[in-house]
Amino acid sequence: MAETLTLGKALNHGLRRSLEENEKVVIMGEDVGKLGGVFRITDGLQKDFGEDRVIDTPLAEAGIVGTAVGLAIRGYRPVCEIQFDGFVFPAYNQIVAQVAKMFYRSKGKVRLPIVIRIPFGGGIGAVEHHSESPEAYFSHTPGLKVVTCSNPSDAYTMIQQAITSDDPVVFFEPKRRYWEKGEVELGADLSGAFPLHAARVAREGSDATLIAYGPMVRTALDAATAAAEDGRNLEVIDLRSLSPVDYETVYASVRKTGRAIVVHEAPGNIGLGAEVAARVTEHCFYSLEAPVLRVTGYDIPYPAARVEEDYLPDLDRVLDAVDRSFGW
Amino acid sequence: MANGVSDVGADAPAGGFVQLLTPDGERIDSVTTADGTTYSVDFTDEEYRGLYHDLVTVRRLDAEATALQRQGELGIWASLLGQEAAQVGSGRALRPQDMAFPTYREHGVLYTRGIDPIMPFGLFRGVDQGGWDANEHRFNGYTIVIGSQTLHATGYAMGVTMDGKTGTPDGEAVIAYFGDGATSQGEVNEAFVWAGVFNAPMVFFCQNNQYAISEPLERQTRIPLYRRAAGFGFPGVRIDGNDVLASFAVTRAALDNARNGQGPTLIEAYTYRMGAHTSSDDPTRYRIASEVESWKAKDPISRLRAFLTKQQLAGDDFFAAVDESAKDLALNLRERVLEMPDPQPVSMFDHAYPNGSPEVDAQRARFADYHASFEGSDH
């Protein structure tokens, strides 16, 4: 049955279904129980599944992820909520040194099917540490898979796929898109679903390729709509998976359009866009009509809320990059 | 909630500790701590001799490993010399269903779990990163980042509770090993918080060997470590870490409390790292010889030997036979370490992800092609 849901509610439904289908799935984090999370993503789950399945933890992120490791060794499938992007760093040691490496260290004998959910990105007028985009740190770490959703349908499916996966998955949620609505096919069979680590062509086009993920997919789609009025037909790729990246989908698009522009909120320096640009240059060199361009956050700490709209890539900055690509 | 204080133990640090076997080999029947808990052991003669066999064996294996490192056959070795009693006593206190989370120095605990002592040598020789199954051996992988495993142990123990495996004498319990340096880590303190809040069925076993590489205990704490437990709301007990009987008695009681649903305990095993931190360390730079000498007089093995001799539980034939058996095991270990094959380089791409990764697969293929391109050449 298709229902119109917000992205946040779609995640809630996906988590609910995961809890229903596998009794080893547990949710843990700060305020995820009675409160339902500060964004209400786990709303009502503790009431229905109990305090052992939806665990309000002490306020310590390393503890959340570190105890999740132990639960996973015990056979559980923990889904950790990190309340905000900027709060993940106390857990960074556990994620990078333990979660990412346990399978390798044990020669494949110990699996840690842990999902670490992190609301990320800016645009909500928040104070410091509540608007960051730390995805490159985790994408750089072998042993982790990193994904992000951009719409309610993907949110519902991808969170379930991440929980079902035996790989450790860092799951970034575009917090400023939590309230965006879309059609969600509740109860759809996961086995036929679009693969978790595949990129999706979010909009077909022929003149240039916009490569985006998470909150910037909406921005890229809006830019494509605006560009169409100028007679430019832009293709939009939603990467969805940041580690690994589904490069074949990217290459196929760039070989068709000859132009690529990567868009993300995170600072550009050593970001996902740099890697995508390098790969596209290597694999699509003779197809390119212009260098791969990037539209990203600036290489500064995330600024105060009153100026964040100037920091974040928006429709105009994306179109400006499109102009620069065509002007090459 | 009172902490373990013993009137006995002339060699005890201020505040005392639980000691059931003095450095001279005198048995103390039982010790009652300030909270009213009485600790004692009830071993048969054979069991006393078995503990001696364990202690001598793990020391001999450790010496062999140190020699292997000096001969270039191991990249590094973390010696347990001096800590045999803490490890053997607590290890033997574990029941088969219990789960242990070691650091990288718990070779003695590993041995008492009935695990082939060769198991961690791949790590120290550099042919793998450990590579064993935590659940199969009821013994987690060696954890090198200081203190991280205490959180893993706590989470595992929460899972034990969630599985309904506590609250009976047959329940499961978990033990986390760590050192005095680790008590300064935030993660260890988080583990204390978690274990307390969730009443996790576990024992925090701190081997206070007085040094975190070069830094003395005074750089980690201004109160005795066992007293930290009070602030987290569970009992803390200090034991003579060189007394295998105290280590067994207190750990067994704490584990049984945990499996019965009474929550965590912190045990501080007051001991001394007789050797270097690892084979890469030079302890003469930070501690004086007389200190080491004073701890030699508290040796865990010689006190048990003295006890066995005085009680006429064992004689020279027994001691010689134990030495011989330990030597045989050590030489067998040496042979097998030397036979460990280096891994095929391409195998480094194995086990990055349970579900694999197209990126890693592509890099593995390129690596194989690159190497194949040299076949037949002198490269």
Automatic annotation (TrEMBL), chain B:
Task: Show the InterPro entries listed in the entry.
Answer: Alpha-ketoacid_DH_E1_comp, DH_E1, PdhA/BkdA, THDP-binding
Asked if the Swiss-Prot or TrEMBL record annotates the protein with the keyword DNA-binding, the reply is no
SUPFAM superfamilies with a match to the protein in the record: Thiamin diphosphate-binding fold (THDP-binding)
Does the keyword section mention Oxidoreductase?
Answer: yes
Instruction: Please report the stretch or stretches of sequence annotated as the Dehydrogenase E1 component domain.
Output: 57-327
Q: Which CDD domains match?
A: TPP_E1_PDC_ADC_BCADC
Keywords assigned by UniProt?
Oxidoreductase, Pyruvate, Thiamine pyrophosphate
**Classification via Gene3D superfamilies:** 3.40.50.970
| Pfam families to which the protein is assigned, alphabetical | E1_dh (PF00676)
**Domain of life of the source:** Bacteria
User: What PANTHER family does the record tag this protein with?
Assistant: 2-OXOISOVALERATE DEHYDROGENASE SUBUNIT ALPHA, MITOCHONDRIAL
The protein's name in its UniProt record: Pyruvate dehydrogenase (Acetyl-transferring) E1 component subunit alpha
Organism for this UniProt entry: Paractinoplanes pyxinae
Instruction: State which gene encodes it.
Output: pdhA
